[in-house]
Task: structure prediction
Amino acid sequence: MLDPHAQIVRRASDMRGYYADEQALEQLITAHDDPIHYETFESPVPEEYGQVKFCISRLYPGKVGDEYFMTKGHYHAVVETGEAYLGLRGQGLMLMKTAEGACQWEAFAPGKLIYVPPYWAHRSVNTGDEPLISLCLYPGDAGHSYGDIKSEGFPRRVFQRNGQVVVS
Amino acid sequence: MLDPHAQIVRRASDMRGYYADEQALEQLITAHDDPIHYETFESPVPEEYGQVKFCISRLYPGKVGDEYFMTKGHYHAVVETGEAYLGLRGQGLMLMKTAEGACQWEAFAPGKLIYVPPYWAHRSVNTGDEPLISLCLYPGDAGHSYGDIKSEGFPRRVFQRNGQVVVS
Result:
């Protein structure tokens, strides 16, 4: 059902500009031959109104400096569309923000569904020691948009400090 | 996340007119005090364009005569909307039909996603010995419609014959 040709791969080098510690990211890219950071496997469902697109997302574990690995995050091109995420494996947080500056987060857990309402940009963060794997479902006409994410980031970042997960 | 107030309960008596063996259904209703046949637990997500509604469906195991327990089945009021079903527990079939008379089916399995494309009416059938539990996700504006299901039924029924699951 999931089309292996519709795989999106993001390597560490694709994440330049996203982490607080740019030097640590460069070290990761060099030391590990630009490793895969996360990848998604998309359903072959048409991208049109009425369809329900679904994908599997796999975000590897690790840290850039003391900041946990994360996805770039995205808005939907059609901003009034939401998205459902079902945790399948691993631990992490879904960080969500609005263009107006609101920020919230919710924990991933296997078997738990996180609902990202319309208008909220969303980014997955892997706070565990294994891949964070989730099933994502969204309206076929939603589309993706990075909007202000690369220039503005999210209002919060997720770090490991003294062995704890800290959102700051 | 799932609103216990948004529970839909279908009892055996709600299924009059759906099974081949009407007498066996009446015996079931009488002998077991009109037992719950299936129930759904709906998310509190608004029923509007752009949202992703989700629900948990639980269909009990059993037979009416030699026909496996099933749901009524439904089209969507907005016929060009699809629906994704993720098997969580149990065994069964998703029967699908179009208004033009096409009929297909696909097996449920825990962890397997079944995609019901736009325009297809769909009905779950429990062919196992335990509840068939699935997670359903569909566009917020999809709505439900029974269309021709009560008058026409589905082109196929699912029976147990000689210990085998038979679609005929």
The radius of gyration of chain A is 15 Å. Chain A touches chain B through 24 residues (CB under 8 Å). The first strand of chain A starts at residue 7 and ends at 11. DSSP finds two helices and 13 strands in chain A.
